[in-house]
Automatic annotation (TrEMBL):
Coiled coil: none
Protein name: Sodium-dependent transporter
Protein source organism: Clostridium weizhouense
High-level lineage: Bacteria, Bacillati, Bacillota, Clostridia, Eubacteriales
Keywords: Membrane, Transmembrane, Transmembrane helix, Transport
Membrane topology field: Multi-pass membrane protein
Length: 450
């Protein structure tokens, strides 16, 4: 029996759902810090160039694949080409999605536990030591991280049981605006603190001397991760797009809005960090030590802390469901397993394998010292996804659309069957897809290994 496919209902909900996949932990614990460390506005310019010349072309290519075939990532790739080699894209995308979820859901679990902690007053009057020990317990306990990871996955599963319109669309339509409002409130509070200017300077002061090849590599990696390309999330979501959605337009708006959200997150965090004389750090340290500490010291901080972790949890959950949806539709369409069952099976797979990531996320965790290729399982997942799967898949996808898919089909998708007057833009885009983006990915990929 052919499974009846749902669609998003309008261009607005398409935009919000797509943006909700892009916005996630990457905006809050990666982008602001990497920007601050790598030359502020200078890095932002490089990042935007990477987005324009590589990220967007890959994103739009994924949209073309998704909307043309209206299938899960594996089915979509198999349909769009009969070239055997390219079929592996579907498999790499599925692997990338699983490996990304193994470690992403660990951090989503930590964020959930921090929402709970902020609500129950754990952070009242904390000091640097207590902040460190709270995070130490959160990440090294044998049971709690696995439990919170499971709760996060279960939440995602419950949303997805409700389907594309009733689950993904309803949730993202309601929560994306709330998320942005909460973020603006936090940013406003942070930039009005005494001494906040230093933090704003850290974030945007342009320093072109800091830009070298390693900065360009991290900008490209970030562009892939931020735009959720290479995993199958965007192919899957675009398989639900309306026929009249303007793909180039949606991709550009998503990239811009996502960058704005990242900058807002930076404005919510760094001015406060500097105002309290703290060191800007990245990743876990920034989100789980510094943030509770600064909020506990500021007037009205308790409520802001709750707001901040809530908005982080919302962003992380919406990004997570865009990953879960990839494997769920693969199960329903390719393996013919009913949606509810597919959700349960996948939650189990990810929580079981993901628990190894949960126990190895901290070097002091119970599996923290079990190394595979010199890395903990958590770091190995991150390494495989960011350095191997995403760039390779991005490259294959762009080559596929540039050289192996019927040009008419590509143009029809981009011009909505010639109803849009955008021939010039399409021409430029196809030029970038064929000649610029692949060359850049190859150069940067090789450089990252040398
Ligand atoms: N874009 C998400 C973030 O910034 C992460 C993500 C990557 C989500 C790939 C889906 C697919 O956190």
């Amino acid at each position: 029996m052919e499974h009846k496919r749902e669609k998003f209902s309008s261009s607005l909900t398409v935009f919000l759902a797509t943006l909700s996949s892009a916005v996630g932990l990457g905006n809050i614990w990666m982008f602001p810090y990497i920007t601050g460390k790598n030359g502020g506005a200078a890095f932002i310019i490089i990042y935007l160039l990477c987005v324009t010349l590589v990220g967007l072309p890959v994103l739009i290519s994924e949209f073309i694949i998704g909307r043309t075939t209206r299938k899960n990532v594996y089915g979509a790739i198999s349909r769009i080409t009969d070239k055997k080699g390219f079929k592996s894209i579907g498999i790499i995308a599925l692997l990338a999605t699983y490996f990304l979820m193994f470690f992403y859901t660990v951090v989503v679990g930590w964020v959930y536990s921090y929402v709970f902690k902020s609500l129950t007053g754990t952070f009242n009057g904390i000091t640097l030591e207590t902040a460190n020990s709270i995070f130490y317990n959160t990440s090294t306990n044998i049971i709690l991280p696995i439990l919170w990871q499971f709760i996060a996955l279960l939440t995602g599963g419950i949303i997805l049981v409700l389907g594309v319109k009733g689950g993904i669309e309803k949730l993202t339509k309601t929560l994306m605006p709330v998320l942005v409002i909460l973020l603006i409130i936090c940013a406003f509070r942070s930039i009005t603190l005494p001494g906040a200017l230093e933090g704003i300077k850290f974030l945007i002061n342009p320093d072109f001397l800091k830009v070298d090849i390693s900065v360009i590599i991290s900008a490209l990696g970030l562009a892939f991760f931020k735009l959720s390309v290479g995993t199958g999330s965007m192919i899957t979501y675009s398989s639900y797009y309306t026929d009249d959605n303007r793909l180039i337009n949606t991709a550009s708006k998503v990239a811009i809005a996502d960058t704005v959200v990242s900058l807002l997150a930076g404005l919510a965090i760094f001015p406060a960090v500097f105002s309290f004389g703290m060191e800007p750090s990245s990743g876990p340290g920034l989100l789980f030590n510094t943030v509770p500490l600064i909020f506990s010291q500021m007037p009205g901080g308790k409520i802001l802390c709750i707001m901040f972790f809530m908005l982080t949890a919302m962003a992380a959950t919406m990004a997570m469901i865009s990953l879960l949806e990839v494997v769920i539709v693969f199960f329903t369409e390719e393996l013919k397993i009913e949606r509810k069952k597919a959700i349960i099976i996948n939650i189990l797979i990810i929580s079981i394998l993901g628990s190894f990531a949960a126990l190895s996320a901290s070097s002091e965790g119970s599996l923290g010292n079990k190394l595979i290729f010199g890395m903990s399982f958590f770091n190995l997942c991150d390494f495989l996804v960011s350095n191997i799967f995403l760039p390779i898949n991005g490259l294959l996808i762009i080559l596929l659309i540039g050289y192996f898919v019927n040009k008419k089909c590509v143009c029809n998708q981009l011009s909505n069957n010639e109803t849009l007057n955008n021939k010039k833009v399409i021409g430029i885009l196809i030029f970038i897809i064929k000649y610029i983006a692949p060359v850049l990915i190859i150069i940067i990929f090789l450089k990252s290994f040398i």
